Amino acid sequence: MPTENALLLKVEGLGKHFGGVRALEEYNLTLRDGELMGLIGPNGAGKTTVFNLITGVIRPTKGHVFFRGKDITHSRPDQNAALGMARTFQNIRLFKQLSVIDNVKVGVHMHHGTGLWATALNLPNLRRSEQAIEERALEILSAFGLMDYKEELAENLPYGDQRKVELGRALATAPRLLLLDEPAAGMNPQETGEIIRLISRIRQEYDLTILLVEHNMKVIMGACESIQVIDRGEVLCLGTPEEIQHDPRVIEAYLGKPKGEGHA
Amino acid sequence: MMGWNRLKWFFPMLILAGAILVFILRSSVNDYILSIICFAGINIILAVSLNLTNGFTGLFSLGHPAFMAVGGYVAAILTFPVTRKAMLLPALPSWLAAQQWSLLPALILGGLCATLAAFLIGFPVLRLKGHYLAVATLGFLIILQVLITNLESFTRGPLGLNGLPLLTNLWWVYLWVVITIYVCWKVKHSSLGRSMLAIRENEMAAECLGIPLSRTRIMAFALGAFFAGVAGCLWAHLVTAITPTSFSVIMAFHLVVMVVVGGSGSITGATIAALMLTSVVEILSPLEENLGAYGISEIIISIGLLLILIYRPRGIFGTQEPAFLVKQRQRVSGEVGRSLSYQNGKGGTS
Fold it and tell me: What is the pLDDT, as a whole number, of residue A4?
């Protein structure tokens, strides 16, 4: 079914070298509207580099990224966000000293925020914009069951809830494409189950396309329809969870070669 | 809702009360104390506006005195009586020599020139972070001092301009204190201010949420510079003299102390810290003279700063404003939301 949908993201021959280190080589990816793809690979395989390149946090050495038909290879992260791209981070990056609701409100700024003049001169559209932002933020908070912590500083929240705030904040930007970098990292099994349900729920409610990096196989196998495996900066294979689980190259990348074959 | 209504009247009443206080002070207190109160007000303008750059957006700038100098010199040249200008600045271009402006337009133009300077140095310098930015802005301050010293036909070089008309009074200072606090308060409690705070808290996350980093940074830097320029004009027309060394590194240090002591991002904190620091310096300066122990106020300020950094590293107020000044409405609805969503518990998320 997903193959019938329009192309949302296309990555062609993307490469990133940090000095002599080849973090990523010839990376290709095609995401269609509504897809939920998992991206896995051993530590240091280049998963986070892929995210940073797609969102524009770092610039590629070579290759191209197309998003919604536009070449965004050299776009800044804020430009990509405006086009409908949102992400979360492996190590949670909340605005720690801001309240939970303010964290979410920052995500809405792009759509409803006012400029300097309207703000400083208290023009009538300032109040309207603040109201729109507040409404949207409250909507997100109640959808995520975070009303409880509304005025709490983000840094005071339990870890699992901080992840939720980060996810809510990303959704506040009203994205088309959501990039999730290990959303279940450091969570207990109960919280992990909750985050899987949350992801599939928001995917339907907000009509999202999701690219998911995760170490937790329960999350990956449970949530994704297709999975791409990368190792040492290169794409290893792409397939359904069943195909991936039985692919000898994947097993080798994760567990090493069986005894007697190749190097120790 | 009641809290909201009360708050709606609180700020106008506060402004009115301040105005009455200004009126009473001007008719009761002697000129010396009045001028100290003016200095305190100018320091409030400076600390609150520096807070916009250093506190909200997290750009550690030491360049505030440089913007004061820009504003101060521009305004001084404009308000200088034509006759004195002919005497002291004979090399001044004739179109400029013929000008003799009143205070308000000179203040505004001075502020705008400071803003322009902030734009010009902002583009290259704001790429830097943390202490690199601090060093770069400090460099800007020193470059500007050298420039002023050498632009003799406009500034009379190291001699400076003296005998400026005494145009600044407590009313002018009060007006600009109110404007500065009002604008900064509005900015802080708006979407724009939140995006500045977001940049301070986590640049990469802010950028990925669609906040343009350099534009927002420059906006905060330039807005802060505008008020610094205005404060520089007020300062020059209070002291009635301006020299290249009027706006020094020590001043930058004092301003940063005010922001840090008050709490990075807290407008109330910056205001109170500015008042505190001005009074400490004024109380200690007779002591310095009597004891012959010059520099003792610097030592006391430094010790005070150290103590605050040790025991309250986020300053007196942190990023917050005192609770009674912030919308009560939010807190009330927050509590209602709390009790409701507890019943739903985590079930609400699945």
Answer: 66
Is any Cβ of chain A less than 8 angstroms from the Cβ of B187? yes
Predicted confidence (pLDDT) at residue B332 exceeds the cutoff of 60: no
pLDDT tens string B309-323: 898 888 888 888 887
Q: Which residue of B has its CA nearest to A200?
A: B350
- ipTM for the predicted complex comes to 0.90
Q: Options 3.40.640.10, 3.80.30.20, 3.40.50.11290, 3.40.50.300; which CATH number does A93-174 get?
A: 3.40.50.300
Please answer whether residues A36 and A210 qualify as being in contact, where contact means their C-beta atoms are separated by less than 8 angstroms. yes
Residue B92: predicted pLDDT: 84
Asked if B340 reaches chain A (Cβ–Cβ under 8 Å), the answer is yes
Tens-digit pLDDT profile for residues A197-237: 889 899 999 999 999 998 888 788 878 889 999 988 888 88
Contacting residues of B for A96, CB less than 8 Å apart: 201-202
Q: How confident is the model at residue A258 (pLDDT cuts 50, 70, 90)?
A: low
Strand ranges of the sheet holding A7-18, from the earlier edge strand across to the other edge: A21-32, A7-18, A62-67, A70-71
pLDDT mean over B245-252: 90
Chain A residues with CB inside 8 Å of B210's CB?
78, 81-82, 107, 109-110, 173
Alpha carbon distance A226, A36 (integer Å) = 7
Q: Is the pLDDT of residue A252 over 90?
A: no
How far is the first Cα of chain A from the last one, in angstroms, to the nearest whole number?
Answer: 43
Tell me the average pLDDT of chain B: 86
Three-class DSSP labels, chain A: CHHHCCEEEEEEEEEEEECCEEEEEEEEEEEECCCEEEEECCCCCCHHHHHHHHHCCCCCCEEEEEECCEECCCCCHHHHHHHCEEECCCCCCCCCCCEHHHHHHHHHHHHHCCCHHHHHCCCHHHHHHHHHHHHHHHHHHHHCCCHHHCCCEHHHCCHHHHHHHHHHHHHCCCCCEEEEECCCCCCCHHHHHHHHHHHHHHHHHCCCEEEEECCCHHHHHHHCCEEEEEECCEEEEEECHHHHHHCHHHHHHHHCCCCCCCCC
pLDDT single digits (tens) B157-203: 888 998 899 998 999 999 999 999 999 999 999 999 999 999 999 99
The 10s digit of each residue's pLDDT in B20-29 is 999 999 988 8
- Are B196 and A115 in contact by the 8 Å Cβ rule? The answer is no
Amino acid A257 reads K
Q: Do A113 and B193 touch (CB under 8 A)?
A: no
Neighbours of B1 (CB within 10 A): 9
CA B29 to CA A186: how far, in whole Å? 64
| Interface check B131 vs A, CB under 8 A | no
Nearest to B346 among A94, A113, A194 (CB): A194
| Pairwise CB contact (< 8 Å): B348 & A96 | no
Report pLDDT for B340: 37
Q: Can you give the length of chain A in residues? A: 264
Distances in Å between the alpha carbon of A145 and those of A168, A179, B340?
Answer: 10, 22, 10
Range(s) of chain A covered by CATH 3.40.50.300: 1-84+175-264, 93-174
Domain A1-84+175-264 sits in CATH 2.60.40.10: no
The domain locations on chain B are 2-332
